[in-house]
């Protein structure tokens, strides 16, 4: 996969040699991530290496690290995963490390990820599931053109409790329009 180049970011597939960068980003954001992503609580250097290896093998997914153009720092990770059970549908995800939030990086990376997904795949829809308490994600999704589609009650088990999930979607025609 070729890098996706934005104004301030480059999105590139993560290399196994960058596992320490990924671990540092996860570790510095652990408090925030564990509230939203179950894997974050136990993430260590080995699990970061395995994540990168799995991402490089995945045929139905494209996973990118977000790197600042100037500093080269890893600021986040995003992915588009085609759904095998529903042709034309893909799951869209991204996160930005805690110390780089509120700088517009999620929006810039999200635009690059979505544009690449529409260009490279015959998709009809991108979908996202978020924690209803995640106001920052909701704000980014709106700016990218995603629309709120509803709420799934007690849909996901996270940190020992069942939580709701908000459903957001972006249709190809909405992106192109």
Keywords:
globular, 8 strands, alpha+beta, single chain
Describe this structure in words.
33% of the residues lie in helices and 34% in strands. With 177 residues, it is an alpha+beta fold. The chain has an eight-stranded mixed beta sheet, with helices on both faces. Helix 1 (19-28) crosses helix 3 (45-57) and helix 4 packs across helix 5 (135-144). The longest helix has 16 residues, at 105-120.
Provide a short characterization of the protein structure.
By secondary structure, the protein is an alpha+beta fold.
Q: List the uncertain runs.
A: none
DSSP E strands, number: 8
Radius of gyration: 16 Å
Strand content: 25-35%
Helicity, as a percent range: 25-40%
**Average pLDDT across residues?**
91
How far from one another are the termini?
A: 26 Å
The ordered H/E elements are EEHHHEEEHEHEEH
Structural class: alpha+beta
- Structure annotation, total helices: 6
Strand order of the largest sheet: 1-2-3-4-5-6-8-7
Shape: globular
Largest sheet: 8 strands, mixed
Topology:
Elements: E1 4-5, E2 9-12, H1 19-28, H2 30-34, H3 45-57, E3 61-68, E4 74-82, E5 89-96, H4 105-120, E6 125-130, H5 135-144, E7 147-158, E8 161-171, H6 172-176
Parallel strand pairs: 5-6
Antiparallel strand pairs: 1-2, 2-3, 3-4, 4-5, 6-8, 7-8
Helix pairs in contact: 1-3, 4-5
